[in-house]
Prior knowledge:
Blueprint: H1 25-56, H2 60-86, H3 91-108, H4 115-143, H5 147-176, H6 184-200, H7 215-228, H8 230-260, H9 265-290, H10 295-319, H11 324-342, H12 345-351, H13 358-387, H14 389-410, E1 418-422, E2 438-442
Amino acid sequence: MPIWLSSGRLPVTSKTSLWGVLADRTYRHLFLAQVVALLGTGLATVALGLLAYDLAGGQAGLVLGAIFTIKMVAYVVVAPIAAAFIDRLPRRTVLVCLDIVRAVVAFMLPFVTQIWQIYVLIFVLQSASAAFTPAFQATIPDVLPDEERYTRALSLSRLAYDLENIVSPILAALLLMVVSSNVLFFGTLGGFAASAALVLSVVLPSPQPSAKRGIYERTTRGIRIYLKTPRLRGLLALNLAAAAAGAMVIVNTVVLIRANLGLGESEVAITLGLFGAGSMLAAFALPTLLDRFSDRSLMLLGAMLMTTTLIAFALGIRILELSWAGVLLAWLMTGIGYSAVLTPSGRLLRRSAHAQNRPALFAAQFALSHACWLVTYPLAGWVMTQAGLVPALLVLGGLSVVGIVVALFIWPKSDSDIVEHRHDSLPEDHPHVKDGRTHAHPFVIDDEHIRWSRHL
């Protein structure tokens, strides 16, 4: 039997290839659950655009804009609240129930007849996703506690997102040759149902919940841990840089290719595909690079690559004639830098909290990173519409520079896990200081370490 089909775990001391991590049965099922759910989501994206056109005609753009705004608001608001209420529930039960909610909404979407019904259903769908995704992401480091294998899982996750961007539109196009657009929603339903079945097929670790706390304490705990941890404040700044560059690509590619270059729809798909291909190239390379270099170094390098690319592209357009080849090269390099920023973020979150606080911390990352997108999405579209391509590249590139500079200042270069510190406020008989008030251990924000300091 091939090793990747076995149900056992590889020894954590062995060097694991990128695909070798799928030898773990639990992770393999979770990864497949992610893949089928993403494919279903991609089909829904295509179907929503067509449904909006059927219901709103020439106003479909406004409807889709509202849908994306509802999505981001749900992500930012619901994620930390949901994490506060589900952290004491069995994780497998939570994930399966949320997949069922998403499947039910997908089933209802083909039957809507009013635009307001779309808005309500999308809010329910995205609220379920805002609860599902952080809980799912927080499960992976518990399933794969070895950092080397977890790093490879993060790269596979990045590949899944990139493949979804490529495969889902192709699959949707093939299906639309034989079925109506509303049938695509049933593909979405199938994706969520398959995800639920795969999650149900494995036993998931559920860390012991933290001590009982009030609703406000539970809701804000992840964000407070996040903002008190220097490396995570740096991550937030780099999230802003990635959102700025990513929004430039996602929002403005269609205008750049169709209006500025006068090319067709297939060229739009190919151009976005080059951005995804760059991201995939980085995802393949990162596990090996992260064995040799620090997260901080590679993430900053990736941010600098995508930012430099956008600014150089803007200056190049001023000097040379705009060409499709130039766009393809720029988007490929931007995709490489984008993935180098985002892929290692799970490693930082894993290092920055105890297991029982990880769901709240992943929810905080989910909410705060999407808050960055909530700013950059409309900014990218507005600047491109009002001022044109070069100003859009410079403004979004400049915002990305701001993120990099902030990260350089607030994320210490010497970012050690083990920090020597002294507890002056704890009583003599507290278990944490039984071996002395001054000690060193992996440092995270918790009840005994309420701020990042050497004197507590």
